């Protein structure tokens, strides 16, 4: 059955957890969907783990729509949330509504996610008023890496913690159906979770959130440029891939691939006529 914003609301009410993973292509989305993952985030982490950028700042609407289309085709039951890329919503409320609309109309997403607290509440309200569910994202907001001075834990001082709580309440008030809390001390994320009526999705925010999200290349050991402390590695697929690629390279070079079983046949008579 399709997961919707009502699934999120019910989970909050019944104190059951929401599982979310990122995906950027059809076949991965299908595997996650079939594993029962509630929600798939087409994150702008696409910039790091798929496109090889240093950060998410360069990701475009075109990139997001292209990958959201692929994920949407594979996610029959999972709620698909598409990230709004840097400068697709900060510029104006109008831009925010138009670009959120494109992620649903062209990309096939069920909801959008954008980064920020109080300062993006006019955008959240306008997108929600247009009938598009919004997931907010507070704490470490990677699109602001240049302003934050790096990817570091957020909300550690009294002032910063108070601001995060206020931001969480503000995005809820603006109409967000969920909020991602990234790289925030567990006790603060738990406090925010207890104060909100909407679902909190943690990433590096401890076990007290209503759900969790991870970047799938991180949890499968497929991305080694940088691994944050909060990542749990569930498999070493990267090592398996490298070893398979090495084996293939060897097989091609020593002519043991392709063998008979991977080869099409034709009558010898036909070939002889060509000589
Ligand atoms: O882009 C992304 O993958 C994200 C998650 C890290 C929450 O925003």
Blueprint of the fold:
Layout: H1 5-14, E1 18-22, H2 26-34, E2 39-42, H3 46-49, H4 61-74, E3 79-83, H5 93-105, E4 111-115, H6 121-129, E5 134-139, H7 145-148, H8 158-174, E6 178-182, H9 186-195, E7 199-203, E8 211-214, H10 216-219, H11 237-253, H12 268-274
Parallel strand pairs: 1-2, 1-8, 2-3, 3-4, 4-5, 5-6, 6-7, 7-8
Bound molecules: 3-methyl-2-oxobutanoic acid.
Radius of gyration: 22 Å
Q: What percentage of residues falls in helices of 4 or more residues? A: 40-55%
Determine the strand fraction and express it as a percent band: 5-15%
- Tell me the structural class: alpha/beta
Oligomeric category: single chain
Low-confidence stretches: none
Overall shape: it is elongated
Distance between the termini: 60 Å
For the biggest sheet, the summary is: 8 strands, parallel, barrel
């Amino acid at each position: 059955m399709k997961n919707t914003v009502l699934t999120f609301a019910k989970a909050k009410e019944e104190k059951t957890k929401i599982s979310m993973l990122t995906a950027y292509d059809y076949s991965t989305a299908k595997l996650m969907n079939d594993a029962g993952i509630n929600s798939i985030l087409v994150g702008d982490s696409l910039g790091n783990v798929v496109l090889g950028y240093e950060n998410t700042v360069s990701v475009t609407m075109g990139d997001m729509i292209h990958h959201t289309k692929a994920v949407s085709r594979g996610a029959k039951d999972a709620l698909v949330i598409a990230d709004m890329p840097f400068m697709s919503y900060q510029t104006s409320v109008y831009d925010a509504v138009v670009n959120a609309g494109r992620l649903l109309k062209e990309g096939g997403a069920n909801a959008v996610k954008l980064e920020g607290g109080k300062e993006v509440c006019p955008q959240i309200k306008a997108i929600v008023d247009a009938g598009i569910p919004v997931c907010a994202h507070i704490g470490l907001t990677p699109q602001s890496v240049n302003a934050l001075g790096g990817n570091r834990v957020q909300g550690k001082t009294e002032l910063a913690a108070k601001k995060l709580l206020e931001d969480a309440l503000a995005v809820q008030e603006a109409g967000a159906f969920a909020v991602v809390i990234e790289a925030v001390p567990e006790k603060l994320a738990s406090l925010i979770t207890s104060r909100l009526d909407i679902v909190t999705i943690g990433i590096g925010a401890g076990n007290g959130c209503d759900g969790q999200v991870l970047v799938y290349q991180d949890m499968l050991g497929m991305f080694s440029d940088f691994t944050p402390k909060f990542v749990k590695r569930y498999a070493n697929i990267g090592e398996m891939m490298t070893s398979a690629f090495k084996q293939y390279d060897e097989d091609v070079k020593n002519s043991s691939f392709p063998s008979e079983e991977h080869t099409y046949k034709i009558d010898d008579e036909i070939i002889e006529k060509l000589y």
